[in-house]
Amino acid sequence: MTQLEDFVERARLARLATVDERGSPHVVPIVFVYVDGIVYTPIDLKPKAVPARGLRRVRNIEANPRVQVLVDRYDEDWNRLAYVQLRGRAELIEGGEKYDRSLRLLEEKYPQYATLPLAGRPVIRIAVERMVSWGDFSP
Amino acid sequence: MTQLEDFVERARLARLATVDERGSPHVVPIVFVYVDGIVYTPIDLKPKAVPARGLRRVRNIEANPRVQVLVDRYDEDWNRLAYVQLRGRAELIEGGEKYDRSLRLLEEKYPQYATLPLAGRPVIRIAVERMVSWGDFSP
Q: Which among A21, A39, A54, B131 is placed 20 to 30 Å from B97, CA to CA?
């Protein structure tokens, strides 16, 4: 794993940008795992009242699968600022081997899922096509 | 100032999402100030080699002024997660009263600018039309 990939995978939070059907951007914080060029993020940080498919990010992805994930680091020492943009294509997965694996990886990374079961929740799978980075990535 | 606005203004970093001419999203971390429904963010976190007008975020805004700014809070206690989306229209300003004021506000918020002069750098001004929030905003 490269230093960049390590920086991405260790981040606790990222941001997912999508575009709606009128061409407006939409960006939300996400928990996620990154493995082998793929970002997985579950649909789980929203009021239970909204069905997954009604979520703005899901509707956007269905209309336009091009997304960008941002992982960044802020530090009051601006020499240590850094960010990585992961550009790729997103799809919703709800079952199968990749889906099951993504749930296991999310549960390993986030102990919070021990009491907040992921089973049955759709996952956004993003195949990363390009990574663009800026800044200092030393730990 | 509302609790939401206070949460926004106190954040040290936000993320700015724009859309490029092909309809793909773009998102970068930004330093910023928020005052009276306006977000100001300077063009300054990039290699000096790129002229401001050549920056992706600037070209995107000129083609499509609809942007979204995200301010969020992560905490390992997920009951404390929170975010605010600020949806609005962006324009580049390079002089005048609003420009001068934005530089003063940025210098007040970020002591880093004492040694990293802002004078002459363009500023993105975003008139916020809508704020959408989620989570717990208690300090």
A: B131
- Let me know if residue B93 belongs to a domain: yes
The total number of structural domains in chain A stands at 1
Which of B15, B67, B68 is opposite residue A70, by nearest beta carbon? B15
Quick check: is B96 in a domain?
yes
What is the tens place of the pLDDT at every residue in B86-122? 999 999 999 999 999 999 999 999 999 999 889 889 9
Q: How far is A17 from chain B (nearest CA, A)?
A: 6
Could A25 and B29 be called an inter-chain contact, meaning their C-beta atoms sit closer than 8 Å?
no
**B83 lies in some domain:** yes
Q: Which of A100, A98, A103 is nearest to A116 (CA)?
A: A103
Compute CA distances A70 → A8, A49, A106, A134, B44, whole Å. Answer: 9, 27, 18, 11, 18
Residue pairs between chains A and B whose CB atoms are closer than 8 Å: 95
In a domain, B139, yes or no: no
Query: What string of DSSP letters covers B90-130?
Result: EEEE-SSHHHHHHHHHHHHH-GGGGSS--TT--EEEEEEEE
Could you read off the pLDDT of A86-133 as tens digits, one per residue? 999 999 999 999 999 999 999 999 999 999 889 889 999 999 999 999
Please tell me the distance in Å from A39's CA to the nearest CA on chain B: 16
- pTM score: 0.93
- The average pLDDT across B62-69 equals 95
Q: Which domain holds residue A115?
A: 3-135
CATH classification at residue B18: 2.30.110.10
Chain B partners within 8 Å of A116 (Cβ)? 78
Asked if A26 lies within 8 A of B78 by C-beta distance, the reply is no
